[in-house]
Amino acid sequence: MSMSTSTEVIAHHWAFAIFLIVAIGLCCLMLVGGWFLGGPRTREVEKRAV
Q1: Which 3 state secondary structure label does DSSP give 5?
Q2: What integer pLDDT is reported at residue 49 of this predicted model?
Q3: CA distances from 47 to 11, 21, 39 (A)
């Protein structure tokens, strides 16, 4: 069994790499979207609670 080169590794795992990038991007998008959409109301509630 020979050592695989980086191009062979990329050729075998490109779909998984794209899936990971898209999944992490979607998670970040949902977190940022929730912060923007719910931000002012939740910050107002926090101010009144303190």
Answers
A1: coil
A2: 60
A3: 53, 36, 12
